[in-house]
Amino acid sequence: MTDSAPTISCGTRIRDQAQSQRRAGRLAAALVAAGVARTDRVAVMLRNDIEFLEISLAAAGCGANPVPINTRWQAPEVAHVLRDADVRIVFAHTEFVGLVEHAVELSGGAAVVVEVAMPRESLAEAGLDPALAEPTGHHPLLEDWIEAHPDPLGHLEGAITDSMGLIYTSGTTGAPKGVLRERLTPQQLMSIAGGAAQRMGLTPGGRTVVAGPLYHSSPNTVAVLALRMGTDITIMPRWHSEGFLRHVHERRITQAKIVPTMLSRLLSLPAEVRERYDVSSLTHLIHSAAPCPPAVKRAAIEWFGDAVWEYYGCSEAGAITWIGAADWLGHPGSVGRPVDGASVAITGADGTVLPPHEVGRVWVRGADYWPRFTYLHRDELAPGPLPGHITVGDTGYLDEDGFLYLTGRSAEIIIAGGVNIYPAEIENAIMALDGIEDVAVFGIPHPGDLGEAVAAHVIPRPGATVTAQSLRTALTTQLADYKIPTELRLVPELPRDDSGKIYKRQLQAEYGK
Fold it and tell me: What is the pLDDT of residue 417?
């Protein structure tokens, strides 16, 4: 905990949060002057930076919906969101201005581009071309907009609730969908914010490090909530395993939100490197967004102890389940039990609810206070077999204590000779072997008549002596023979997004599927 005024830092840049709040208020006044009204959409295509949070606060301050844009997308993907959300203004770092101009043209819209100059310090930290510090001169600059409005916009009753009406899914299994929420009541807003802050471990005077990209909803939500709570914020321009530990050690970080891939990469650091850093200040090291192999989770708990927390949820229904370290050790592999009135049920192909330990489709209902939703520009949701429940395509099972275990996504189930094979089971078995940092298991066309075969792409840990044959041999005592990958490759990287979700369709395309 700290007695000093909270700040936001990114690389070598540090700004008092009070100053950032005032800058956000002035930018909110500029947005209103530019014609932005409540529930209008304002896109943000920035790398991790202090200005990302200030723009997000400014949009919320005038009741507009901030729409973060994935900085790894190409122009057609950006154009889809600009068109789908009818975006009025796009804030873009100089690096992305040309791409955004093309996307605006493709979208057929008339979104105004506001350029955000890239600080030389952030460019150096991210290893980018120093020339990107020079604005293009084609568009108005963020700093000019702020400078032109010396007085912050005053408080607008209900603006924050208006700003939370739209969020986009990650788009790892198709084009991102706009989740259009019903307007929150003040009670819902307080319940969502209060519940999230408590479970996430965000407190006034605490310290958080933003390790993931702010264009993803989870780190974005945590960072904005931390700013409203007066939690000191350290933004990492990009992930660096030892850099993360250095921040925790030097800044006495109390809270961080990461993904399982980051956990695995931390565990890939040599023991002598890990031992240099004191991580005892952490009270909450939270992961989500993708399944965490039990071997990685167990090693993380041995290292970070009770600070390790996990939740499972979705854009449509929020956080559904939570689990702490002690409960996980008693229910290894679980993602937790529902909280705050949320619900989970498992159904078979015919829609009937399955008993414990039987794998089926996962259906969820949000917490008691979670708002209802529809998809933007899409048909109403088709009714499912359970009132008020939705599915996002995950498969899994419940145990007799009500703990949820995920086995993958329904679209990823491998069907070989009529037998269902769940990739998560094989991925967990491979991750439990020595010397493995990451893995993806997926189905590919079978050369014979079995329909599909099992393929695995594996990243060894640095310095590990691993071969495809040694992995297959080790798996023979762990898995049935039909689950052992027939195609197994050692690769330097996997196509994961920055939230840890993997693009298995890209891998399957290599095999003609």
Answer: 80
